[in-house]
Amino acid sequence: MPAFAQPFSRLPEGVPAILLAVFAMALTDAIIKLSSSGMTLWQIWILRSSLVLPVLFLAARGRVTGPATGWVALRSAALVAQYICLYAVLPLIDMALAGAAFYVAPFFIVGLSALVLGNRVTVRHWMAILVGFAGLLMIVKPFSATFTPLIGMPIAAAAFYAMSAIITRARCATVTPLAIAFWLNLGCLVAGIALGLLRESLPAPDWAGFITGPWHAMETRDWTMVLTLSGLIVVLSVSLAKAYQSPRPEVIAALDYVYMIFVVFWGYVIFAETPDLWTLLGIGLISAGGLSMLRIPPARPARTAQSIPGTT
User: Fold this and answer.
1) DSSP state, 39?
2) Which of 103, 122, 142, 284 has the CA that lies 20 to 30 A from 227?
3) Measuring CA to CA, how many Å separate 277 from each of 131, 175, 281, 282?
C-alpha cells in the first residue's frame, strides 16, 4: 500500500455514518424548502413521525427502552430545540449568516469532547476545524450581512446540536441507533402536536407561518414529499446516532462541514443554483479540513471514559 494511503486505510469509526447523515440532512432541507409553501413544520413532524415510528419500533423489535432512556430522551429534546431555533429565525436574518452561525457547532463539539469525554484535542485538530470553517465562510459569504442580536438563535441551535452529539457519545454509546432514532422521531411528534395545540396562543408574526401556521390540506405532491422525508429521516436519525457514538467525536464534527458540499450539490440539482468560484474554493477547503482530520492519529485521552459516571 502506498505510504500516502496508509492513514486512510482504516477510517475512524463513525465516518461513513456521518457522511451518509449529512447527505440525507442536506436533501431533507432541500425538500422541506420545496414543501414549506404548502405545509407547516408541525404538520410535517406529525405526519412524518406517524409513518416512521411504527417502522422503527418494528425494526428495533420493540427494544426502545433501557437504562439510558432518560438520556436518549434528553438528546432528542436537544435536537428538537435545535430544529426550532434554526427554523424560527431563518425568515428574520440572512440565511448565509444563520448558516455560518450554526456551524460554530463543531467548535462546541470539539471543546465538549475534551471537557466532558476527556479526549485530548491537539492544535492539529483545531487547525482542521478552522480550515473547514474558513471554507464554510467562503460558501455562505456572511460578511455583507448586517449584524443582529438574533444571530444568537442559530448559535443556540449549534449549542443544542453539540449537546446532543456529546450526550450520544457519553451516555448513549451502548443504545442501538434504531432506539435512538425512535426517540428522536417521538420527540418530533410530541413537539409537532404541542405546536399544533398551542399555535393560536403563541405569538404569530408573519414570519412564523412555517412554524405555527394552520394545517394545510394535503395534495398528492404533499404526500410524496412526506413519504420521501419519512425515508430520509430514518436514514438520517440512525446514521447520526451511529456517527456520534464514535469514540472520536472531534473527527465527526470536522466532517459535519461536508453538509455544505451536499447543500451546494442539491441546490444545483433541484434549484438550478450554479456554484460560483468562492463556493468551489470553499468546497476545496472543507474537503482539505476533513481529510486532514482523518490523517491525525488518535491521541491518548487525558482521562479515560470509565472515569466519567455513566460512560462506556
Assistant:
1) S
2) 103
3) 17, 43, 6, 9
pLDDT of residue 309: 36
**253 in Cβ contact with 106 (< 8 Å):** yes
Least confident of 21-30, 44-53, 165-174, 209-218: 209-218
Q: Could you tell me the three cell numbers for 217? A: 390540506
The closest of 178, 312, 157 to 246, measured between CA atoms, is 312
Q: Which of 10, 9, 2, 12 has its CA nearest to residue 298?
A: 12
Amino acid, single-letter form, for residue 37: S
* Rounded Cα distance, 31 and 141, in Å: 23
DSSP class of 162 = H
Nearest to 187 by CA among 108, 103, 90, 81: 81
- Give the contacts of 143 (CB within 8 A, at least 6 positions apart): 137
Query: d(Cα 104, Cα 159) in Å, to the nearest integer?
Result: 8
* Among 276, 35, 256, 250, residue whose Cα is nearest residue 126: 250
Length of the chain: 312
Give the Cα separation of 225 and 210 in Å (integer).
Answer: 16
Helices first, then strands: H and E counts in the chain: 13, 0
pLDDT at 176 over 90: yes
72 neighbors 186 (Cβ within 8 angstroms) = no
Sign of the CA dihedral 147, 150, 153, 159?
positive
DSSP string, 263-302: HHHHHHHHH-----HHHHHHHHHHHHHHHHHHHSPPPPPS
C-alpha cell at 275: 456554484
- Whether the pLDDT of residue 302 is over 50: the answer is no
Among 83, 84, 24, 64, which residue's Cα sits nearest to residue 230? 24
The one-letter amino acid code at 226 reads V
